[in-house]
Amino acid sequence: MNKRSIQLLSIGLLTATVAAAQQGKSYEVKSRDGNVSVKVEAGDQLLWSVQHKGQPLITPSAISLESTKGVLGKNPKVTSAPVKQVNTTIKALNYKKASIIDQYNELTLNCKGDYGVVFRVYNDAVAYRFFTRKKGELLVKNEEATFNFPGDQKAFLPIQWDYRGGQNFNSSFEALYREINLSQFPKDSLAFLPLLVEAGQNKKVVILEADLEDYPGMYLNNQPGGNGLKGVYAPYPLEVQNSGYNNINLIPTKRADYIAKTTGTRNFPWRAIAISEQDKELLNNDIVQKLAAPSRIADASWIEPGQVAWDWWNSRDITHVDFKVGLNTDTYKYFIDFAAANKVKYIVIDGGWTPQLDLFQVRPELDLQQVIDYGKQKNVGVVLWASWNAVVHQMDKAFPHYAKMGAKGFKIDFIDRDDQVAVASLYQIARKAAEHKLLVDYHGSFKPTGLHRTYPNVMGYEGVKGLENYKWADEDQPRYAVTIPYIRMMAGPMDYTPGAMRNVNQLNYRAIGSQPMSKGTRCQQLAMYVIYEAPLQMLSDSPTAYQREQECTDFIVKVPVTFDETVPLDGKVGEYVALARRKGDTWHVGAMTNWTPRDLTLDFSFLPEGTYEAEIFKDGINADRNGTDYKREVITVSKTTRQLVKLGPGGGWAARIYRK
Fold it and tell me: Which residues contact 304 (CB under 8 A, 6 or more apart)?
């Protein structure tokens, strides 16, 4: 429960800290520390702008909501503009910290015509949303959301490219970042969120959205003139057909001339920017959690995060056994044995256990009930893969059926859309799954926007160009790996699926589907378990590979998947990252670099008083030649320790720190 202390303030009683004032048709509200200022002009249109310590971050940018009942935000007539201070503590669940301090100042513009806009100003973020209080149905034709910047600034843009069924607005939401100036935004292209813009003076702005429910997701493209971005949304789908990957995607073939069909009384999604003065601050920003709707699951005690032994990435590459490996009972009992021996909480049975569009035709060589029962005996839960297409059509029968059998959840794949229907579907699936105490891991999905707080049985989201790409692509993954913690991971859980045990440099890399490898070092893979946030965290390589590398496996399985505290240590977007996380009295520290080797000095002042042991895995002296080279050592540390960390090309460093 939240402990809430809210002080309602009238315009005449505003303090210097709140710093909100009405001057004609202009309004201003500041953050509690006074550093972030939002100005709103209500003239012919609504314009918002943001400054940080006097430096413009967002220059005047128009916002409006075009509906069949008028354009909300055009010639607005503000009837009242109350301001309030909020000081709240949110008890977090399955997150990078146990609690979140939620402090902000809020300005609400109530407008004639039964609508309004709410602006929230935090010390490290700004957000706004429209709301309507109209009767009946509302058709939203478009939403104007613009983000104008003072100059032609560099941005990290994930551009949509892998169109499912050849159709726009249908993709896997996986892309390397185009590191280009705003004026170089590719013509006729869309960027999906989150994305980052460099704001000058080392400051960064990350654009996100939150509390996206029953409404299409926001893309951005460039404004005329080159220094701004504007929102674009998938039109409402009227007709769909099976198409796309293996013909299992539901691809719209006819769309309406509006983006949403919704109720006239509702809150619309938050449009937000996160602000940092040092890049590492982005690693501990909580804006999406703060803006998300609270949990709708009254008793979440049955929701258990954990690591997962995964079969698909390694192609079930098990050796030295006396059975034929495949999608069969013996193979998954072996995965369960491996999970139990290493205290891994779940296994996942990925695609192929049923036809992709029918969840009730189980392969005859797989006795699923026997596998689930065997898992129960070993205290290992079974998660089942399913296509979104099949789940949409069969969840009313499939969820109770497989819950009764004892399955723990579903990994739901190939959504590849974020129009209103798809977004609403993810809420419906989460709610229906919760009714049967099933976990959900969304793959082939758009970024998280807070659903994981509203329905905490949603434990994972893909929406990231993860380890699976090593099966077929030759890309600069080490740079991407140290970029996503500052951008994609700000949105929420990120199922990158780390854990490769074959690790090579660029020269020796080959994309091999059945025996995949990763670029960079072994220790970078270990560090990912500390740095990447995923309440259902995959062990992507095979049991055989992990058994061969038991020392590394022992470290991986001791890393928690949720934490009580996160402390950013150092970092630069696209270059390197280092942070510490605490669970109980034990700390884990991770550091990673791109292809550039570097030395870091990590400050251990986050430790409480006392003496600790640190189990360290660091790049071996020959890790630049052979990425599997590492060295393990145990040293004594304390809060006065300043630890030198040497990172090889594509390298990493990981430590578990515990009291002696």
Answer: 345
Q: How far is the C-alpha of 23 from the C-alpha of 42, rounded, in Å? A: 10
Q: Say how far apart CA 422 and CA 500 lie, in whole Å.
A: 32
Q: Is 239 a catalytic residue?
A: no
Q: Tell whether the model's pLDDT for residue 234 goes beyond 60.
A: yes
Q: Catalytic site residue 413?
A: yes
CA nearest neighbour of 367 among 313, 394, 329, 324: 329
Q: Which residue spans within 122-176 are E strands per DSSP?
A: 125-148, 154-158
Max CA pair span of the chain: 81
**Is the pLDDT reported for residue 165 higher than 90?**
no
- In DSSP notation, 72-86 reads ETBS--EEE--EEEE
Give yes or no for a contact between 194 and 487, defined as CB atoms under 8 angstroms apart: yes
CA 219 to CA 536: how far, in whole Å? 27
Are the CB atoms for 572 and 279 separated by under 8 Å? yes
Q: In this prediction, what percent of the chain has a pLDDT beyond 70?
A: 96
Give me the amino acid identity at 655: A
Encode 402-453 in three state secondary structure.
Answer: HHHHCCCEEEEECCCECCHHHHHHHHHHHHHHHHCCCEEEECCCCCCCCHHH
Q: What angle do CA 584, 588, 591 make, to 5 degrees?
A: 155
Instruction: Kindly report the backbone phi and psi dihedral angles of residue 494, in degrees, each rounded to the nearest multiple of 5, phi listed first.
Output: -135, 105
- The first and second tokens of residue 5, run together, are 């202390």
660 or 624, which is more confident? 624
User: What would the mean pLDDT of 156-178 be, rounded to a whole number?
Assistant: 93
Alpha carbon distance 220, 271 (integer Å)? 12
What is the distance in angstroms between the CA of the first residue and the CA of the last residue of the chain? Answer: 35
Q: From the candidates 468, 533, 570, 619, which is the catalytic residue?
A: 468
Is-contact 186 220, C-beta < 8 A? no
pLDDT at 18 over 60: no
| pLDDT score, position 3 | 43
Burial of 43 (0-12, 13-18, 19+ CB in 10 A): exposed
Half-sphere exposure of 213 (CA within 13 A, CB side): 20
Residue that has been written with the tokens 């020796």 in this structure? 508
In the block, residue with structure tokens 């004594």:
636
Residue 1 has a pLDDT of 44
Distance CA 207, CA 158 (A): 12
List 41, 213, 413, 416, catalytic entry = 413
- Which tens digits make up the pLDDT trace of 335-385? 999 999 999 999 999 999 999 999 999 999 999 999 999 999 999 999 999
d(CA 425, CA 586): 39
- The total of other beta-carbon atoms located within 10 Å of residue 118's CB is 17
Segment 647-659 mean pLDDT: 98
pLDDT at 268 over 80: yes
